[in-house]
Fold this protein.
Amino acid sequence: MDWRKERKRFACAWAGIVAAVREETHMRIHIALAVIALVVAAILHISKLEWLILLLTIGSVITLELVNTAIERAVDLVTTDFHPLAKAAKDIAAGAVLIAAVVAVVVGIIIFLPYLL
Ligand SMILES: Nc1ncnc2c1ncn2[C@@H]1O[C@H](COP(=O)(O)OP(=O)(O)OP(=O)(O)O)[C@@H](O)[C@H]1O
């Protein structure tokens, strides 16, 4: 394994994450909500299984937001003119984030509500 290449790959991936956080308001909102959920989870001492589900849920939302941002950039690279396929690509990618975010809210309610009642 070429460690210099691996380090460069990691640096590029990190640069992509930083760019998405800087440029995308929704990414910052997802991260802020994730931090709040993690703090609440720590305060409530949720179980190991609940931690796993919470982390997977947060990871899926942030991962899909990154993919959505990448698709937006790729589409904008191809065309900034109106095109039905550009619209479909962006709308479908946004739909993926929406589904993950709705599932995250439901997971949050299922995990946290019993501790709060
Ligand atoms: N080239 C295009 N052709 C057709 N429709 C487009 C095009 N670009 C964007 N759209 C439409 O506008 C919507 C918003 O696109 P935009 O690129 O502004 O992304 P966004 O979801 O607002 O993301 P953000 O504001 O976080 O960058 C898309 O979901 C799509 O419906």
Observations:
- The chain has four helices and no strands.
- The CA atoms of residues 65 and 97 lie 6 Å apart.
- The domain at 3-116 is CATH 1.10.287.3610 (Helix Hairpins).
